[in-house]
């Protein structure tokens, strides 16, 4: 739960009493080897999951075998909230690396949400961030060039991993193949390779044995039109709101 707490702490300071409620939510550990399915399309999921360690991917596969990766799930991410409604999964989730997860019973989850408004707000923020990431993925695919897509995704993954680890590293451990990146970005593996080679030559990134070093974050952000506001990483100050204040914030900042 360490990565999950780091992630939630980006949204709001989590008092120990609130964190104790979250820890007491009742989780069951599990482990999946790289390549294993965590959720299969068409299944009715009976648990929510929090990733403790490792990377997973959410994707759809067409009838002819083509795959579209919708997003990558990192330590501290929670999925799939559709378990609350016992709906059939309309996508699949697979482990990209060895993955350790914590599963949560929907009944226990709902009970804790009812007991604590602060806990509910923390999980609500996690859902808001995931929705924002999915919206940005649509923009990435529809309007950005190949270099912009790759640079934007690298900056997003770096920012999210730093949040999960509580760090500010320029280096990103990237367990993704060129095929993974191509399936996420609507490109071919060859196009991904050529574009990343050009990015290395331009001094934007370095690669070495599964590690990507972003050499100039500001320059890459400018070239990729990367604005981290959609990740909602600036903390919400609860003290601005009180029971006597009817206004609801229009945007989480």
From TrEMBL:
GO molecular function, one term: DNA binding
Matching InterPro entries: cNMP-bd_dom, cNMP-bd_dom_sf, Env_Response_Regulators, HTH_CRP, RmlC-like_jellyroll, WH-like_DNA-bd_sf, WH_DNA-bd_sf
Protein origin, superkingdom: Bacteria
Domain HTH crp-type: 144-218
Positions of the Cyclic nucleotide-binding domain: 31-119
Keywords per UniProt: DNA-binding, Transcription, Transcription regulation
PROSITE patterns xrefs: CNMP_BINDING_3, HTH_CRP_2
Xref: Pfam families: cNMP_binding, HTH_Crp_2
Stored Gene3D superfamilies: Jelly Rolls, Winged helix-like DNA-binding domain superfamily/Winged helix DNA-binding domain
GO CC terms: cytosol
Coiled coil: none
PANTHER family: CRP FAMILY TRANSCRIPTIONAL REGULATORY PROTEIN, DNA-BINDING TRANSCRIPTIONAL DUAL REGULATOR CRP
Protein name, entry field: Crp-Fnr family transcriptional regulator
Source species of the chain: Hyphomonas johnsonii MHS-2
């Amino acid at each position: 739960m360490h990565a999950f707490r780091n992630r939630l702490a980006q949204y709001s300071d989590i008092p120990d009493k609130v964190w104790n409620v979250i820890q007491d939510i009742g989780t069951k550990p599990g482990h999946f080897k790289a390549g294993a399915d965590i959720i299969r399309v068409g299944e009715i999921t009976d648990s929510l999951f929090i990733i403790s360690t490792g990377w997973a991917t959410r994707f759809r596969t067409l009838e002819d075998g083509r795959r579209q990766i919708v997003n990558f799930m990192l330590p501290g991410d929670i999925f799939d909230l559709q378990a609350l409604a016992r709906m059939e999964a309309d996508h699949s989730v697979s482990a990209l690396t060895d993955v350790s997860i914590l599963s949560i019973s929907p009944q226990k989850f709902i009970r804790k949400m009812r007991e604590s408004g602060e806990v509910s707000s923390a999980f609500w923020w996690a859902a808001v961030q995931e929705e924002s990431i999915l919206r940005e993925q649509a923009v990435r695919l529809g309007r950005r060039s190949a270099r912009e897509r790759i640079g934007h995704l690298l900056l997003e993954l770096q920012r999210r991993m730093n949040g999960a680890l509580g760090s500010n590293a320029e280096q990103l451990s990237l367990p993704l193949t060129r095929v993974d990146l191509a399936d996420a970005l609507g490109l071919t593996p060859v196009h991904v390779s050529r574009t990343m080679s050009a990015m290395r030559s331009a001094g934007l990134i370095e690669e070495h044995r599964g590690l990507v070093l972003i050499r100039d974050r500001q320059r890459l952000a400018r070239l990729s039109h990367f604005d981290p506001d959609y990740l909602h990483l600036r903390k919400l100050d609860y003290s601005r709101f009180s029971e006597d204040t009817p206004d609801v914030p229009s945007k989480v900042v």
